[in-house]
Protein backbone atom coordinates (compact mmCIF):
# COMPACT_ATOMS: atom_id res chain seq x y z
CA UNK A 1 0.00 0.00 0.00
CA UNK A 2 1.42 3.37 -1.07
CA UNK A 3 -0.01 6.79 -0.29
CA UNK A 4 0.01 8.83 -3.49
CA UNK A 5 -0.02 12.64 -3.37
CA UNK A 6 -0.35 14.55 -6.64
CA UNK A 7 0.42 18.24 -6.16
CA UNK A 8 -1.10 20.50 -8.79
CA UNK A 9 -1.33 24.24 -9.17
CA UNK A 10 -5.01 24.25 -8.20
CA UNK A 11 -5.64 20.99 -6.35
CA UNK A 12 -3.87 18.22 -4.47
CA UNK A 13 -5.16 14.73 -5.25
CA UNK A 14 -4.61 11.95 -2.73
CA UNK A 15 -5.29 8.24 -2.62
CA UNK A 16 -4.02 4.79 -1.75
CA UNK A 17 -2.34 3.21 -4.78
CA UNK A 18 -1.98 -0.47 -5.53
CA UNK A 19 -0.73 -1.17 -9.05
CA UNK A 20 -3.21 0.65 -11.33
CA UNK A 21 -5.96 1.05 -8.75
CA UNK A 22 -6.46 4.19 -6.66
CA UNK A 23 -8.81 4.04 -3.68
CA UNK A 24 -9.91 6.30 -0.82
CA UNK A 25 -9.49 9.34 -3.05
CA UNK A 26 -9.58 12.94 -1.93
CA UNK A 27 -9.12 16.28 -3.67
CA UNK A 28 -8.10 19.45 -1.82
CA UNK A 29 -7.28 23.03 -2.84
CA UNK A 30 -3.49 23.46 -3.01
CA UNK A 31 -2.05 25.56 -0.19
CA UNK A 32 -1.11 29.14 -1.06
CA UNK A 33 2.30 29.18 0.63
CA UNK A 34 4.96 26.81 1.98
CA UNK A 35 3.92 27.09 5.62
CA UNK A 36 0.33 26.17 4.81
CA UNK A 37 1.57 23.42 2.49
CA UNK A 38 3.63 21.78 5.25
CA UNK A 39 0.61 21.74 7.55
CA UNK A 40 -1.59 20.44 4.75
CA UNK A 41 0.71 17.52 3.92
CA UNK A 42 1.12 16.65 7.59
CA UNK A 43 -2.67 16.53 8.02
CA UNK A 44 -3.11 14.39 4.89
CA UNK A 45 -0.61 11.82 6.17
CA UNK A 46 -2.12 11.75 9.66
CA UNK A 47 -5.65 11.40 8.27
CA UNK A 48 -4.71 8.55 5.92
CA UNK A 49 -2.65 6.61 8.47
CA UNK A 50 -5.85 6.32 10.51
CA UNK A 51 -7.57 4.66 7.54
CA UNK A 52 -4.88 2.14 6.61
CA UNK A 53 -1.23 1.53 7.42
CA UNK A 54 1.45 2.46 4.88
CA UNK A 55 5.20 3.02 4.88
CA UNK A 56 5.68 4.64 1.46
CA UNK A 57 4.60 8.05 0.18
CA UNK A 58 4.83 8.91 -3.53
CA UNK A 59 4.68 12.54 -4.64
CA UNK A 60 3.94 13.84 -8.13
CA UNK A 61 4.94 17.49 -8.52
CA UNK A 62 5.33 20.17 -11.20
CA UNK A 63 8.92 21.17 -11.94
CA UNK A 64 12.20 19.29 -12.23
CA UNK A 65 13.08 16.75 -9.54
CA UNK A 66 16.51 15.34 -8.72
CA UNK A 67 17.22 11.94 -7.20
CA UNK A 68 17.42 13.39 -3.68
CA UNK A 69 13.78 14.49 -3.90
CA UNK A 70 14.48 18.19 -4.32
CA UNK A 71 12.12 20.17 -6.55
CA UNK A 72 13.58 22.80 -8.87
CA UNK A 73 11.18 25.38 -10.24
CA UNK A 74 7.86 24.18 -8.91
CA UNK A 75 5.90 25.41 -11.91
CA UNK A 76 2.46 26.50 -10.75
CA UNK A 77 3.52 25.77 -7.15
CA UNK A 78 6.48 28.13 -7.10
CA UNK A 79 7.08 27.94 -3.34
CA UNK A 80 8.33 24.36 -3.78
CA UNK A 81 11.44 25.59 -5.61
CA UNK A 82 14.48 24.21 -3.77
CA UNK A 83 12.37 22.18 -1.34
CA UNK A 84 13.39 18.59 -0.59
CA UNK A 85 10.14 16.74 0.02
CA UNK A 86 11.86 13.75 1.60
CA UNK A 87 13.41 16.02 4.22
CA UNK A 88 10.18 17.95 4.65
CA UNK A 89 8.40 14.74 5.65
CA UNK A 90 11.25 13.35 7.78
CA UNK A 91 11.46 16.58 9.81
CA UNK A 92 8.03 15.90 11.29
CA UNK A 93 7.99 13.96 14.54
CA UNK A 94 6.76 10.43 14.00
CA UNK A 95 7.26 10.58 10.23
CA UNK A 96 10.99 9.89 10.08
CA UNK A 97 10.61 6.32 8.86
CA UNK A 98 8.40 6.88 5.83
CA UNK A 99 10.00 6.01 2.50
CA UNK A 100 9.37 8.99 0.22
CA UNK A 101 9.72 9.15 -3.57
CA UNK A 102 9.21 12.24 -5.71
CA UNK A 103 8.64 12.50 -9.47
CA UNK A 104 7.80 15.21 -11.98
CA UNK A 105 4.10 15.08 -12.86
CA UNK A 106 4.47 14.44 -16.60
CA UNK A 107 7.13 11.80 -16.00
CA UNK A 108 4.92 10.19 -13.36
CA UNK A 109 2.03 10.01 -15.83
CA UNK A 110 4.38 8.44 -18.36
CA UNK A 111 5.55 5.83 -15.85
CA UNK A 112 1.92 4.89 -15.26
CA UNK A 113 1.32 4.48 -18.99
CA UNK A 114 4.53 2.45 -19.36
CA UNK A 115 3.58 0.13 -16.50
CA UNK A 116 -0.14 -0.41 -16.98
CA UNK A 117 -1.39 1.80 -19.80
CA UNK A 118 -1.08 2.66 -23.46
CA UNK A 119 2.75 2.59 -23.47
CA UNK A 120 3.03 -0.86 -21.91
CA UNK A 121 5.27 -3.07 -24.04
CA UNK A 122 6.41 -0.10 -26.15
CA UNK A 123 10.18 0.14 -26.53
CA UNK A 124 10.33 3.81 -27.58
CA UNK A 125 7.40 6.12 -26.95
CA UNK A 126 6.25 9.33 -25.35
CA UNK A 127 3.35 10.79 -23.40
CA UNK A 128 2.26 14.38 -23.99
CA UNK A 129 0.32 15.77 -21.04
CA UNK A 130 -1.90 18.74 -21.87
CA UNK A 131 -2.87 20.90 -18.92
CA UNK A 132 -2.04 24.37 -17.62
CA UNK A 133 1.19 23.91 -19.54
CA UNK A 134 2.51 21.00 -21.59
CA UNK A 135 4.67 18.23 -20.20
CA UNK A 136 6.22 15.24 -21.92
CA UNK A 137 7.59 11.99 -20.62
CA UNK A 138 9.93 10.00 -22.85
CA UNK A 139 10.37 6.22 -22.89
CA UNK A 140 13.64 5.02 -24.46
CA UNK A 141 14.48 1.31 -24.51
CA UNK A 142 11.55 0.71 -22.13
CA UNK A 143 13.06 3.08 -19.54
CA UNK A 144 11.94 6.55 -18.50
CA UNK A 145 14.51 8.93 -19.96
CA UNK A 146 15.31 11.95 -17.77
CA UNK A 147 18.36 13.48 -19.46
CA UNK A 148 21.50 15.06 -18.01
CA UNK A 149 19.64 17.55 -15.78
CA UNK A 150 16.40 15.63 -15.14
CA UNK A 151 14.72 17.94 -17.66
CA UNK A 152 14.13 15.71 -20.68
CA UNK A 153 10.64 16.37 -21.99
CA UNK A 154 10.38 19.98 -20.79
CA UNK A 155 8.67 20.93 -24.04
CA UNK A 156 6.93 23.93 -22.47
CA UNK A 157 9.97 25.92 -23.56
CA UNK A 158 10.01 24.52 -27.08
CA UNK A 159 9.80 27.39 -29.56
CA UNK A 160 6.84 26.84 -31.87
CA UNK A 161 7.13 29.95 -34.03
CA UNK A 162 9.94 31.14 -36.27
CA UNK A 163 9.92 34.56 -34.60
CA UNK A 164 9.46 34.68 -30.83
CA UNK A 165 6.80 37.28 -30.02
CA UNK A 166 5.98 36.34 -26.44
CA UNK A 167 4.79 33.51 -24.23
CA UNK A 168 2.42 32.14 -26.89
CA UNK A 169 5.45 31.43 -29.09
CA UNK A 170 6.37 28.60 -26.72
CA UNK A 171 4.60 25.24 -26.52
CA UNK A 172 3.71 25.55 -22.82
CA UNK A 173 1.54 28.62 -23.24
CA UNK A 174 0.63 28.28 -26.90
CA UNK A 175 -0.73 24.75 -26.38
CA UNK A 176 -2.11 25.22 -22.87
CA UNK A 177 -5.32 23.18 -22.63
CA UNK A 178 -6.54 25.42 -19.81
CA UNK A 179 -6.08 28.49 -21.99
CA UNK A 180 -7.80 26.78 -24.94
CA UNK A 181 -10.88 25.91 -22.87
CA UNK A 182 -11.02 29.46 -21.49
CA UNK A 183 -10.76 30.97 -24.98
CA UNK A 184 -13.40 28.62 -26.41
CA UNK A 185 -15.74 29.29 -23.48
CA UNK A 186 -15.43 33.01 -24.10
CA UNK A 187 -16.01 32.65 -27.84
CA UNK A 188 -18.96 30.27 -27.45
CA UNK A 189 -20.33 32.20 -24.47
CA UNK A 190 -20.61 29.18 -22.19
CA UNK A 191 -19.28 28.34 -18.74
CA UNK A 192 -15.53 27.76 -18.50
CA UNK A 193 -15.87 24.00 -18.08
CA UNK A 194 -14.24 21.42 -20.36
CA UNK A 195 -17.18 19.06 -21.00
CA UNK A 196 -19.60 21.98 -21.44
CA UNK A 197 -17.23 23.72 -23.85
CA UNK A 198 -16.80 20.59 -26.00
CA UNK A 199 -20.53 19.96 -26.00
CA UNK A 200 -21.11 23.50 -27.26
CA UNK A 201 -18.27 23.21 -29.78
CA UNK A 202 -19.78 20.10 -31.38
CA UNK A 203 -23.14 21.77 -31.98
CA UNK A 204 -21.87 25.26 -32.79
CA UNK A 205 -21.33 26.72 -36.25
CA UNK A 206 -19.07 29.46 -34.86
CA UNK A 207 -16.21 29.70 -37.38
CA UNK A 208 -13.83 31.46 -35.00
CA UNK A 209 -14.27 28.76 -32.35
CA UNK A 210 -13.76 26.05 -34.97
CA UNK A 211 -10.57 27.74 -36.20
CA UNK A 212 -9.28 28.18 -32.66
CA UNK A 213 -9.77 24.49 -31.94
CA UNK A 214 -8.35 23.42 -35.31
CA UNK A 215 -5.20 25.51 -34.79
CA UNK A 216 -4.71 24.00 -31.35
CA UNK A 217 -5.00 20.44 -32.67
CA UNK A 218 -2.58 21.26 -35.48
CA UNK A 219 -0.10 22.54 -32.89
CA UNK A 220 -0.32 19.31 -30.90
CA UNK A 221 0.05 17.29 -34.12
CA UNK A 222 3.19 19.24 -35.04
CA UNK A 223 4.62 18.53 -31.58
CA UNK A 224 3.94 14.81 -32.12
CA UNK A 225 5.56 14.94 -35.55
CA UNK A 226 8.68 16.69 -34.25
CA UNK A 227 9.06 14.29 -31.33
CA UNK A 228 8.81 11.39 -33.78
CA UNK A 229 11.57 12.89 -35.93
CA UNK A 230 13.95 13.47 -33.03
CA UNK A 231 13.39 10.22 -31.13
CA UNK A 232 12.14 7.73 -33.77
CA UNK A 233 9.20 6.66 -31.61
CA UNK A 234 6.67 3.84 -31.99
CA UNK A 235 3.77 5.52 -30.24
CA UNK A 236 2.74 8.81 -28.65
CA UNK A 237 -0.11 8.99 -26.15
CA UNK A 238 -1.92 12.17 -25.18
CA UNK A 239 -2.97 12.70 -21.58
CA UNK A 240 -4.42 15.39 -19.36
CA UNK A 241 -8.08 16.10 -18.69
CA UNK A 242 -8.71 17.33 -22.22
CA UNK A 243 -7.63 13.96 -23.65
CA UNK A 244 -10.92 12.51 -22.39
CA UNK A 245 -12.59 14.32 -25.29
CA UNK A 246 -12.66 11.97 -28.33
CA UNK A 247 -13.02 14.98 -30.63
CA UNK A 248 -9.60 16.27 -29.58
CA UNK A 249 -7.85 12.95 -30.24
CA UNK A 250 -9.68 12.60 -33.56
CA UNK A 251 -8.65 16.05 -34.78
CA UNK A 252 -5.04 15.73 -33.58
CA UNK A 253 -4.73 12.39 -35.39
CA UNK A 254 -6.28 13.92 -38.51
CA UNK A 255 -3.88 16.89 -38.42
CA UNK A 256 -0.93 14.56 -37.75
CA UNK A 257 -1.72 12.39 -40.78
CA UNK A 258 -2.11 15.50 -42.93
CA UNK A 259 1.48 16.54 -42.16
CA UNK A 260 2.73 13.54 -44.14
CA UNK A 261 1.07 14.87 -47.29
CA UNK A 262 2.68 18.33 -47.20
CA UNK A 263 5.68 17.19 -49.28
CA UNK A 264 6.20 13.97 -51.30
CA UNK A 265 9.58 13.27 -49.69
CA UNK A 266 8.02 13.13 -46.23
CA UNK A 267 5.65 10.33 -47.18
CA UNK A 268 8.48 8.48 -48.94
CA UNK A 269 10.83 8.79 -45.97
CA UNK A 270 8.64 8.51 -42.87
CA UNK A 271 5.85 6.27 -41.67
CA UNK A 272 3.11 7.62 -39.38
CA UNK A 273 3.15 6.18 -35.88
CA UNK A 274 0.27 5.55 -33.48
CA UNK A 275 -1.08 8.67 -31.78
CA UNK A 276 -3.85 7.93 -29.30
CA UNK A 277 -5.33 8.88 -25.93
CA UNK A 278 -3.53 7.83 -22.77
CA UNK A 279 -5.29 5.13 -20.73
CA UNK A 280 -5.26 6.93 -17.41
CA UNK A 281 -6.89 10.29 -16.80
CA UNK A 282 -7.23 11.91 -13.38
CA UNK A 283 -5.29 9.16 -11.56
CA UNK A 284 -2.33 9.01 -13.97
CA UNK A 285 0.12 10.95 -11.81
CA UNK A 286 -0.74 9.02 -8.66
CA UNK A 287 -0.31 5.66 -10.38
CA UNK A 288 3.02 6.63 -11.96
CA UNK A 289 4.50 8.22 -8.85
CA UNK A 290 3.61 5.13 -6.84
CA UNK A 291 5.20 2.96 -9.52
CA UNK A 292 8.49 4.76 -8.90
CA UNK A 293 8.17 3.79 -5.25
CA UNK A 294 8.08 0.07 -6.00
TrEMBL record:
<dbReference type="InterPro" id="IPR000600">
    <property type="entry name" value="ROK"/>
</dbReference>
<dbReference type="InterPro" id="IPR043129">
    <property type="entry name" value="ATPase_NBD"/>
</dbReference>
<protein>
    <submittedName>
        <fullName>ROK family protein</fullName>
    </submittedName>
</protein>
<dbReference type="Pfam" id="PF00480">
    <property type="entry name" value="ROK"/>
</dbReference>
<comment type="similarity">
    <text>Belongs to the ROK (NagC/XylR) family.</text>
</comment>
Amino acid sequence: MILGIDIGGTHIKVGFVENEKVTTKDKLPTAKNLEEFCQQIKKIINDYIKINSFTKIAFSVPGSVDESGTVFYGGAVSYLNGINLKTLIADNEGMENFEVVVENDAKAATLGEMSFGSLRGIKNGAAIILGTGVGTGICINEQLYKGSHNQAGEVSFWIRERAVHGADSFVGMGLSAVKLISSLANQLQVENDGPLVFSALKSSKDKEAAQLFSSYCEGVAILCFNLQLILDLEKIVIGGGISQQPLLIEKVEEAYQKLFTTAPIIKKTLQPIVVEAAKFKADANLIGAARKGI
